[in-house]
Amino acid sequence: MSNKPNDGGPAFARPGFTAEQTESQEGMSLRAWLAGMAMQGIMHHESMVRLVAFQEGRGPEKEIAVRAAAIADALIAELERDKP
User: What is the full DSSP assignment across 27-47?
Assistant: First the structure.
């Protein structure tokens, strides 16, 4: 069993589409993209930045990154739960 979180697969997958280009491009993972979006939301609200900056004894950058990753993981888990 792996401790690696589910990355949700590629966020912007693109299959090869020409005779010259036969390799597909996976792009970033869905987890990385969702974490970036969550981080933008947190950073947009100064009160959220202040709130997370003093929790857990970590600096604000680390705390915001940890929370953004947790939000991404929660959303991926919820999406997986809803699959038929």
Answer: -SBHHHHHHHHHHHHHHH-HH
